[in-house]
Amino acid sequence: MARVLPTKKTERAGVNEFRALLEAAGHIVQEIDGGNDYGEDCYLSFTRNGERTGDIVAVQVKSGTAYRRAVGYGISCREHLHDWTRSRIPVIGVVYDPDLKKLFWANLTQYLLHELEQGRTPKSVPVGETAVLDADTVASVVLRIRRFIEENDRVRPIELGLGQSLVRKANRLRGRHSNDVDRTPVGGLPYEMAVPAVDFHERHPRVGPAVKRGLLTTVILCCLAMLGPGLYGAVESNGHYSWPFSG
Fold first, then answer.
1. pLDDT tens, position by position, 20-63
2. Residues 121-139: tens digit of each pLDDT
3. How many separate domains does the chain show?
4. Is residue 129 within 8 Å of residue 71, measured between CB atoms?
5. Which of 100, 133, 165, 212 has its CA 20 to 30 A from that of 150?
6. Is 127 within 8 Å of 75 (Cβ atoms)?
């Protein structure tokens, strides 16, 4: 008969607590199959007024007393340092203490990027014992995470609309003066004015080739129109009156 190991029970307890808390707050938790777990246990999609905001984070959940430290808790990042810092979406860490029956959290991406910028390569991410994630703090934690996303993502004006994109851009610019983390892409920052054009091309991939063909055809016709009188004169001067437009 198959046995359920105590460690498995503890792991599930943490995921279940996290899922119940965030779903009770109206957000969407989508678990990742255990066979495909490469450092994240689930994805968390945020909602507001019953509608999805489009903001999403990956979540690593750790359960058990093994994650306790002299002060607070710790989540190892030896195997996932590059994954968590290169991810296009932030990665959040959550520790469940089965004795206290409490959840604690940390922004893994934010901490690791800051450490790397300072020239340090951490082996674990500290999780403060005051960073409690419960019914009383979930709203403020969600706000902090969403603000981090706004300050570090790229603006997509076509998809967000002018008003919301301007708000996000202002939040991101303001955050660069107050936030230690600036997720500058490899190769430098993209040209801001090109973002709408890139978005339009992604949404309408067939428009580009059609426009190119139209421009090429127009150029060819214009060239023929300019060369026509000269060719006609050359043919007439040689005494060949077979030119179609010779009248």
1. 999 999 999 999 876 555 668 899 999 999 999 999 999 999 99
2. 999 999 999 999 999 999 9
3. 2
4. yes
5. 133
6. yes
H helices of the chain, in order, are 6-24, 81-86, 108-117, 138-152, 157-160, 162-178, 195-203, 207-237
Q: 137 and 211: one domain?
A: no
Q: Is 127 exposed, middle or buried (0-12, 13-18, 19+ CB in 10 A)?
A: buried
Would 87 be classed as within a structural domain? yes
How does residue 158 score in pLDDT terms, banded at 50, 70 and 90? very low
Tell me: do 135 and 243 sit in the same domain. no
Distance linking the first and last C-alpha atoms of the chain: 100
Q: How far apart are CA 112 and CA 71, in angstroms?
A: 19
pTM above threshold 0.70: no
Q: Is residue 16 part of a domain?
A: yes
**Chain-centre distance of CA 91, in angstroms?**
10
Position 191 in a domain: no
Enclosing domain of residue 21: 6-153
